[in-house]
Amino acid sequence: MRQEELENFKKVLLQKRQAILDNNLEHCKSMENIRGLSFDEADHVAMHMKNTLDSSIFTNHNTELEYIDSALTKIEQDTYGVCEMCDEPIAKERLKAKPHAKYCIVCREIVEKNSKD
Ligand SMILES: [Zn+2]
């Protein structure tokens, strides 16, 4: 992969990373706000948050963050864009759609199938 392309992916990844971190910060802030409320109010809001599955979105974001961090490490180590399973290069179209992809399309299907079973 050309240096120019790598730089571009790095930029996209860093932007995504920042967006997730900002989002987490917002989440923490709203948790802070809850702590400032009276017990009854806090309880009510906490229940509401649980119901809206806000916390699962939070977890998803953190998983994505891990993927992004590992993709950034790979850029530094010059192994970016290589499938972790078969060591084949991941298609650029795929990386453009999902710059933190770990697997090529073929391996991703295998991984998804296995995780479903
Ligand atoms: Zn693969």
Automatic annotation (TrEMBL):
Domain of life: Bacteria
InterPro entries for this protein: DnaK_N, Znf_DskA_TraR, Znf_DskA_TraR_CS
Keyword Secreted on entry: no
Keyword Nucleus on entry: no
SUPFAM superfamilies linked to this entry: DnaK suppressor protein DksA, alpha-hairpin domain (SSF109635), Glucocorticoid receptor-like (DNA-binding domain) (SSF57716)
A Pfam family it matches: zf-dskA_traR
Mapped zinc finger ranges (dksA C4-type): 83-107
Keywords of the record: Metal-binding, Zinc, Zinc-finger
Domain Zinc finger DksA/TraR C4-type: 79-113
PANTHER family named among the record's database cross-references: GENERAL STRESS PROTEIN 16O, RNA POLYMERASE-BINDING TRANSCRIPTION FACTOR DKSA-RELATED
NCBIfam families given in the database record: DksA_like
Protein name listed in UniProt: RNA polymerase-binding protein DksA
